[in-house]
Amino acid sequence: MAFRLLLIAVLLVTCDLKSISQAEEPQRFIAMLEDERVVEDAILRNWYSGNAMPQLAGHSLLNGGNPMRWLVDRTLGPAETPTTYIEFYSGDRLPGRVMSYHEASVEYQTDQPESFSVAPSFPFNRSDSSYRQSIRVRRDFVRKIVWQQMPALIDRHVPSTVFLTNGREIQFRAIRFDTSGIHLLAGRERMTFGFQEIAELHLDNESYWDRYLQELAILFPGGTVEPNDRQRLVQWETVAGLVATTSVQRIDVESYGENNNSDRWVHGIQPAWSLDTIWVACRSTWMWRSWNFDTVPLFRLPFTETREGAMFSRGGFSARVNRGVLGGTAESGKRPTGWSIGVMAPSRLHFPLPLWAIGFQTRVAIDQAAHQRGCIQGQVFFSWESDPKFTSPTLIGSDKVVASGNLRFLTVPPEGELVLVADPMIEGRPAGADPFDIRDMTNWLEPQLLLDKQTLREAIKARTANTILAWQGWQLENDLSEVRFAMTHRRVQYPYETSSWRTTISAQDQPIRLTTRKKIAAETKFLEIVTAKFEGPEQPVLDVRINGIPVLSAPLQNTNASDHVHSPPPYLVNVTPFAGSEVTIEITQSVGPEELPVDWRGLHFLEHPSFLYPVLENPTLADVAAMQTLAGDPAHVILRNEIRQLSRPLIETPDGEWIKIASFEKPLEIRERPVSGQYRQLRFAVAKAGQGHALIRFLHDEEETSPAIYSIGTKSAGKGVIELNPRSFGKEKSLDENWHVITTDLYSNFRDLDITGIAIKSVGESSCLWDQICFAGTSWNFSRNLSVSAENSNWDNWQKRSEELLPRLQKATLTVHLPGQTARPAVMVDQNAGILAMLGDDDWKPGTTVEVSRFDGKKFVAKRLGIDKPSQFGFLQIDSIEQDGQWQAFNVSSRTQFDWQYSHLLLQPSEQPGKLAWDICRPLTYDKQVVIVTKPESFACQIGAIAIDRDHQISGFVTGIAPNGQPVLTIARPLIEHASHLKNPQN
Q1: Which domain of life is it from (predicted)?
Q2: Per-residue b/e over 375-407, b at no fewer than 16 CB within 10 Å?
Q3: What is the model's pLDDT at position 776?
Q4: Measured in whole angstroms, how far is the alpha carbon of residue 547 from the centre of its chain?
Q5: Closest by alpha carbon to 376, among 437, 430, 309, 425?
Q6: Domain 298-451: which topology?
Q7: Do residues 839 and 824 make contact, with C-beta atoms less than 8 angstroms apart?
Q8: Given Cys at both, which of 453, 543, 746, 762 links 768, Cβ 3.0 to 4.6 Å?
Q9: Parallel/antiparallel/unpaired status of strands 681-688 and 768-776
Q10: For 282-338, how does the pLDDT look when each residue is reduced to its tens digit (9 = 90+)?
Q11: What is the mean pLDDT of residues 863-874?
């Protein structure tokens, strides 16, 4: 250290400062182009909007055939290493303090990776935005966290080591983070430290090239960019110490004032390691560096250094990135440089190489701080070869710069390394040079590794699917040639999210297929699919199958960039038929027009949707038994489960007291602009057989002074009560036995509200029925809740219908006896011709005969006609049918698709001769052609059971049974479409 201080003092006294010519004043901006031409100008032009590229002295700097290698603002200078910062595997640095750690989670319906929140030490938001006070950075890109800078560790990385503020140094085997600290396994000892106790934390050395490919897959999804001349990376280095690298596509620009004044520009950039856009003032940027995607500046690679043989320079002088070994800008010769690695000879730098490296080039020189002194020889080795690939002449003084030329790799073996050697030439040192290793400050100037472009593109594309966080745990089944990845700028103006860049995907010629095999937890009710797109028609179409059963088909709607409340809610799949079972799930995204890109944001298995909160969704006897009045007395609530109540079960509350039907451990937040987990709208259904009205009350901490109560069916509910009178009520009419579904805006009535419970009250001569109480952010959200409306019970009275239908259905339903198989039902569709419809099987052979029996036990011989192979629906014909008055025929429904808002009557022959087993079942999942319906409560449904719709027609057949007993109903449409062929298969 004494030698270091002496050397710096000598240099300050003896070094000549470079004189600046007074004849021509240097321009403010200077850039080097890829062909090594240098251009200068006082004004940086054209970079004032997101779709414009910068220009200097008439040259385009980020596109075209000769873009820049670097650009410098001469009025500024580089920053010293920040005192607090977070450093990434690539050498990028974010100045600021790490405040907290966050596990991988779902935030506002979107999957988020492990991350740290960093409070930057520089302005980073747009001037009109105060969305976040911190920047979220991905844990998997972090190499080092510095809370209190240790100068000896600058540009050094000591893997798996924590340096405490008390001077202690601990190497660890494993680390786990919590919100504000770390837990270590050091040897066999477990240790815990808070962030405030740590000076520096150096994480393990992960595979650099794995991380590098991940970075490129985020910055260049799919490995290609259109146009190709924009497939470049750009790095910012600011006077605040920020070093951040992104792609040309992930740069946004805003101009505040005069467009041609670069001091008024602000650049929005998003490196791969950041979850947020970082806004950087152009006037604070000292240097921009840029390179093509198949080139890697060597300063971005991790390296190890050995200094064996050092004498006077033994104490310190470790390698510095983009600085001279003594600090400050690395400069050599008369030519400026954009990046460098500064070392003190003797020095050997080791860099890992990927198998797809094809070349390397650099220049080597002595730093200008040595002036005309110092003596070194630079060498480049490939670790698998004994001889150097390049050896410079002996260099004395800083004037001469030597280029290595393009050194090519034929093949790179596993674990191959690039080695840069700075030899102080202690033996055979020329006359006039400093003795030993004094002032042998060496700069490796603009060293860069060249990669095979095609191999790199293929590797990037192979990795891109894994960068879509929503797809973690899912497998992309497509050949990569069938999909198109793209970079989409998500320009949203939400209170919880700012603009950012997302990887999107569209199908080329075949639908995109995602699959997973997993056990659905017993408590899980929904698969929630969160996607976004910002333009185009309502396409592509999203389809979901579970165990091969279609459970969802829906067109994708556009996202509202300025209104998160009215953006499409996620898509829901009811998975209760599969809860507790291991299943295979397949999701497809169809080929859309103009290759519309889709942003996949989350695939979540949930007990409740993130945007809906149903109350008493499926009440049980235990639920109603636990209900009490607000005074704490038994409530005598009745569970109703009659067939005529289509959305059964539901509750009936007696006249009189307030009854608390729900309480919330975490209050339900009612807000003006609700985010995920907050609500604004309420929907519920109510009916009352006798005179009177009903009240619903939202319990909260301040209800004594600000009650939140609705009345339904009266104009005189009392002071402070808000009246809800459905349109179906007359001016004077009160509640009646018909169901009334009511949607209301809680925020408009009660403003911000934190609901701790719900109480209801029946007033008048009779009890009230309550059903489908549900909260949502917007009334549009209710459309995603697949549930038969209670209003349908007003006219769709299946209890009354069944009394009319069953005698006819009994005569129409026959049992088909199949040799060696379980009997299946068939239904008469043409009484005159004796034609029956049924679900067939793989053994169906037209022309063969089977025995069928009627409800009265009479048996007949029937001949198999045709079968529709995809649906397995077929026709039979009874030979010489007797018109004895004991037959009844039903038409096949002409509807082209199911309607999820209506229920079906499911029936099959009963175990009791001459009887039918039947029940009313409502849809749980919806695919237009196939639905899964609720499990019949009165019988065990079998494959082949018949479904009757609200028009008293045959709507379909049960083609499968879900793991939890729910019937899979397939539409009978093929029987209509192919009737002629099915009746005459020989034609």
Answers
A1: Bacteria
A2: bbbbbbbbbeeeeebbbbeebbbbeebbebeee
A3: 95
A4: 24
A5: 425
A6: Jelly Rolls (2.60.120)
A7: yes
A8: 762
A9: antiparallel
A10: 999 999 999 999 999 999 999 999 999 888 888 778 999 999 998 888 889 877 899
A11: 96
Report CA dihedral (786, 789, 793, 794) to the nearest 10 degrees.
Answer: -160
Nearest to 233 by CA among 490, 460, 498, 469: 460
Of the candidates 417, 437, 442, 419, which has an alpha carbon nearest to the alpha carbon of residue 427? Answer: 437
- Residue 27 has which token pair? 């321009």
C-alpha span between 750 and 249 (Å, rounded): 46
User: CATH for 798-983, among 3.60.40.10, 2.40.10.120, 2.40.128.130, 2.30.40.10?
Assistant: 2.40.10.120
Residue 27 is predicted with a pLDDT of 93
Residues 367, 104: Cα–Cα separation, whole Å: 46
**Segments of the chain assigned to CATH 2.60.120.1060:** 298-451
**Amino acid type, 956:** G
Residue 97: helix, strand or coil by DSSP?
strand
**pLDDT value at residue 788:** 85
- The percentage of residues in the chain with a pLDDT greater than 70, rounded to a whole number, is 96
- The CATH number corresponding to 470-610 among 3.10.200.10, 2.60.120.260, 1.10.10.60, 3.30.1490.20 equals 2.60.120.260
Residues of the chain with CATH 2.40.10.120: 798-983
CA distance 86 to 30: 30
Q: Where in the chain is the domain with CATH 2.60.120.260?
A: 470-610
pLDDT (0 to 100) of residue 10: 43
- Say which residues have a Cβ less than 8 Å from residue 130's Cβ, sequence separation at least 6: none
Task: Inform me whether the pLDDT recorded for 23 exceeds 50.
Answer: no
Q: What size, in residues, is the chain?
A: 987
Does the pLDDT of residue 238 top 90, yes or no? yes
- What does the pLDDT read at residue 184? 96
The Cα–Cα gap between 132 and 276 comes to: 9
Check if the beta carbon of residue 694 is closer than 8 Å to that of residue 654: no
